[in-house]
Structure formats: C-alpha cells, structure tokens
Amino acid sequence: MTLKLQSVTAGYRNRAVFNNLSLPEIPAGALVAVIGPNAVGKSTLLKSIAGLLPISGDMTFAGENLAALSSHQRTRRIGYLPQPLPQAIPLVAYETVFSACRSARGDWTREQTEQAIETVFDTLGIRQLALRRLSEMSGGQRQMVGLAQVLVRQTPLMLLDEPTSALDLHWQLNVLNAVRDATTQANSVALVACHDLNLALRYCDQVLVLSPGGQAELGTPEQVLTPDLLARTYGIEARIERCSQGQPIVLADRPLPASVR
Amino acid sequence: MSSVPSSVAAVDNSANGGSLASQYRRFVWRRVVCLAALALTAVIALLVDIASGPSMLGLGDVIHGLLNPDSLDAGTRVIIEDIRLPYALMAVVVGACLGLAGAEMQTVLNNPLASPFTLGVGAAATLGASLVIAFNISFLGLAAHVLLPLSAFVFAAVASLLILLLSRTLGASVHAVVLFGIALLFGINAVVGLIQFVADAESVQQIVFWTMGSLARASLDKVMIVAAVLVVCVPFSLRNAWAMTLLRSGEEQARSLGIRVERLRLTVLMRVSLLTAAAMCFVGEIGFIGLVAPHIARLMLGEDHRFLLPGSALAGAVLLSLSSIASKLLVPGVVLPVGIVTALVGIPLFILLIIGRSRRVAL
Q1: Model pTM?
Q2: Which of B10, B19, B256 sits opposite A52 (nearest CB)?
Q3: Domain residue limits at A215
C-alpha cells in the first residue's frame, strides 16, 4: 500500500496552487508530516488526494488510480480530516461518529460499527464526550470528535489537515500517538499537515516540505529539516539541536530579512 | 491517556456506565419518547381545534363523533365533518409541510435564519399566485384552481434556484445568502405591490387574502392534495437524513464521506419549493412556522435528522393547530386569519423554549 504522486497539478478554478508535483513513493506504514509556510498548498494537496479538488497527473495508492475511484470506493480507502472543526451544533459526539461510520462503512454489521466506535472513543480518550452535544464542547473537543470520525473508519490512507491546531500539549501528543499506532498496526499511510516542526520530528517517519516556489522535498525528518531548508522555506534562522535524550529539536532564532532569503 | 485535561474532556457523569452503544440506545429511546409526545400533542391540538369555534364542543363529543359519525345529530355532524375537520386537518398538514421545508432549508443552506419566507421562496409563491389571480392567466387550458398552485410552485422553485445559484457561483457566505434572500423578498414584494396597484378590486382582495393566510377555504379534497405532497416528500426527506446530518456537522467532511453536496442541495431545495407551494396554494402565506418549528424541534431533539425532520414537521403541525385554535378564540365570534395569529402564538412559545434551554445550559 504505497502512495505515488506523479506530475500532479491542482488548485482552485483558474489558479494552480502547485504544478507538476512529483514525489518519491511513500511506503506503507509511513506517517508523513506535510509542512511548509502558510498558503503554500498543504491543504490543497490533501484535498486533491482526498478527491475534493480536480487534478491532472497521476495519483496512485496501493496500485489504484485515485482519480478513477468511485466516491463509494474512495470513502473506504481515504479518511480525510478537514481543517475546519466540526460545527458547534446540537449533535452528540456518538452520532457524529456513527453517521460518518454509517456513510463510509456500509459493509460493517451494527456490532462491528458499535465496536469500532467504542474503540475509537477509548483510543482517543474521549469516552466522556460521547453523549455531549458539539454545541456544548470546546474547539479542542470538537477537533477530537472530528478525528474520531476519521479514525473510526480504519481507512488505509489518512489525510489529516492540522489535526492538533485546537489542542493543548497533552492532547497533541495523544492524537499523534493514536495516529502513529493506527498507521503502524494497519500498515497504512497517514499524511498530517502541521506547523509544529518538533511534533513532526518526534512522531513522523518522513517529512514532506512544500516551498513557496513550488518545490517539494520528501525524506526523513533529519535529512530534510536543515537550517538551510528552514531559511529557504520559512525565511527564518534556525538550529537543529539535540535535547538531553538525544531527540532532535528545531530552535527558531529569528526571521531573516527579505534580502537574505 | 490516564489524565484528562479540563480543556478537552471534562467528565460528564451522564456518560458513565455500560457500553457507549447501550448508552446511546437509551439516549435514542428518550428522543423517540420526545417525538411521540410531540405527535400526541399534535393529535390533542387537532382535537381541540375541531372542538373550538363559535359553538364550542366537548372534547369527548368530538372524539365520539369522529369515531361514530352516525351517533351525531345532523347539525353537529355538519359542523364537525364539513367545517371544523377540514379546517383543523389543513392546519396540521400545512404546518407539517412548512416545518419540514424550514428544517431542510436551514440544513442545506447551513443557516439557522433560513426558511421559505425569510429567503423569499414564500413571497415568490405569492407572486406566482398573484399573477394568475390578477391577470386571469390561462395556460394549456388549465383551470385557475390548478394553474394557481402550479404557478406558485414554479415561482417558488425559481426563487430556490436563484438562492442556490448565488450560494454556488459566488461562494456566498451564510450572511450573503441571507442578505440575498432578504433582497429577493423585498424585490418580490415590490412586484406584488405593483400587481395589486394595477389589478381590479376583486383581484386585490384575493391577493390580500392570500398574503394574510387563512384556513377558511379548506376542504377535505384540498387537505388530501396537501397531505399527498407531504406523504410523497417525507420518505425522500428521511432518505436524505444521514446525509443532511453529516452536512450540518461539516461540509468538507461530508464531501469526503461521499455526500454529493450540490445534488443534495438541489433536490432539497426542489422539495422545499414543492412543500412550500403545496402548503401555501390553498391557505396563502403563513410565515414564521417554517422558521421557528425547526428551532423548536432542534431544541427538543437535537440535530440528528432522523429525528429533527419528523420533529420539525410535528412542531409545525402543533404550532399551526394552536394558532388555528387561537384564531377562533382570541376575538369571540370572529375567526381571524391564521397567518396573523401564527406569530402571536408562536413567538411567546419560542421565547419560552429558548429561556428554558438557556437555563438548563447555565445549570
């Protein structure tokens, strides 16, 4: 179950966000952080793979052309978490997840569905929220419910657009642990768009860096995240140091003036 | 995962004990009871509506009379079967149509202010009816009593499509759609005003009657037509219930789950036009129900459309039945047009529900 992108162009109406994007093969079991500055196309890339934007080029997953999949097939293979949080409406968390499950996994029996929901609420540690309305939750809680909508479906490809943007530190680690476990256990592929480079360093097997010029680099975090790349991509002066436990961490020192970038 | 920070998962004691599925089943069961209570209220309101009028009847007599019509004396039988029953049944089916239409519109436009009337769909139906009334238009040899509801439907459908077109082509925000609907409403009202200005006195009277909304011309035949539209629409609405629930929780997530959002919007808005036109063609404009009934249902039943849609229809039926009762009792001896009374009855009820809900949340 590998993901391949070859000469992919995608965007909105008449505006291409990226042109002829080609990436090395992303292997099964990989958790990939998609990073880059604002408006560089991280969300556009995930939406394109999810089939929500028209594309040209080749996208294949597990040998199947993603563009040729029916919407029914796509919902079984791809779980997509959009950046906007689930709306604050009087819908309880359980039925929010149940409705997603029912829509995407019509092949499951009721018992399988209930078991999957039970497991995902426990895995994410949000059992207490099951019968609470979204309208009575914080943004972070709603983000966890949105994530449960994706994880419950057990798809071999997960696309998560800033899944930790509304979460405190504990829940950021909790979510990335859950995603990493799901990816490892099912030998699936997960692409996670995020801004936190240290989370990417800590949890992800690979990092995909999208740069403003349309270039993309894919590799292990230690290969890709270099001071030079951070200067080119983000326009910052940064160091990669090691903490007392030997874990690499990014230390951003200062923004670089435009003339130096 | 052992510690639970307050920012994300404050403990909810109601969610403890048993599997989540069994807890949810109990939760669903409470909603079913709530829906049944709403249905029972609608039946009681229907019976009270039949019983009330210039000559008041006992509830027992009404029930006995409906079950055994032959036991009634001729005068009471005429009152119940020929006058009160069609009138009361019309209130129920029209209220249900408007409640359902309002709920579906609010969902697909993702806008709690949407209703067939606030966004000009009702006004467009009025325009369609006014044109037939004022200019005595004939088309394909259709009689006026057929052409009038047909024209109302076509205009309502065009208004719905205009709203849809704006939502899609301009990528309009929630506010922009509401503003466009309000602009459409004022524009259509101006055209209706112009038609009234050039129409003869009799036509103006008919148009004004239409805009006031009245159940007075109800007959069992007409009730059957409106009920038939409702019966046809309800299964399609319920078939879309899961898709609408997903759409309300988030459009992008719904799309990624295979919901064809554009097609859903189109079919729902067509259904809203049909329900609105059917509701209005025999009783005229009755605003407010389509806006408020879904909110009442939402407060009671939440956003799961398996319950919200029937709940909105029932809430609409109850509201219009109560309005019908009030229209006969507010001024002794006079039956006020129900469209006028609807807001007078509905607004206090709505405010009470909101206050009750706010208190529960605060506690």
Answers
A1: 0.88
A2: B256
A3: 3-220
The total domain count for chain A is 2
Helices and strands counted in chain B (H then E): 15, 0
Question: Is pLDDT of A260 > 70?
Answer: no
Contact with chain A for residue B170, Cβ under 8 A: no
Considering the domain architecture, whether residues A213 and A240 belong to the same structural domain is answered as no
The answer to whether residues A237 and A193 belong to one domain is no
Of all residues in chain A, the percent with pLDDT exceeding 90 is: 82
Q: Give tens-digit pLDDT for B238-271.
A: 999 999 999 999 999 999 999 998 889 888 988 9
| CB of A25 closer than 8 Å to CB of A3 | yes
List chain B domain ranges. Answer: 24-362
Q: What is the DSSP string of A138-184?
A: -HHHHHHHHHHHHHTT--SEEEEESTTTT--HHHHHHHHHHHHHHHH
Q: Which CATH class is domain B24-362?
A: mainly alpha
Question: Closest residue of B to A168, CA-based?
Answer: B7
pLDDT digits (tens, 9 = 90+) for B156-200: 888 888 877 876 676 656 667 777 888 888 999 999 999 999 999
Same domain, A27 and A60: yes
pLDDT band at B363 (very low <50, low <70, confident <90, very high): very low
- From CA B146, how far away is CA B281, in angstroms rounded? 10
The rounded percent of chain B whose pLDDT value lies above 90 is 43
21-50 in chain B: CB under 8 A from chain A: 21, 23-24, 27
With CB atoms and an 8 Å threshold, state whether A118 touches B243.
no
Question: The complex's ipTM?
Answer: 0.90
Kindly state whether residues A212 and A242 are assigned to the same domain. no
Q: Which residues of B are less than 8 Å from A141 in CB distance?
A: 8-9
Distance from CA of A154 to the nearest CA of B (A): 13
> Are A253 and A192 members of one domain?
no
For residue A118, the domain's CATH number is: 3.40.50.300
Environment class of B142 (CB within 10 Å of its CB; exposed 0-12, middle 13-18, buried 19+) = middle
**Closest Cα in chain B, distance from residue A208 (Å):** 23
Cβ separation of B304 and A91 shorter than 8 Å? yes
CA distance B18 to chain A (A): 11
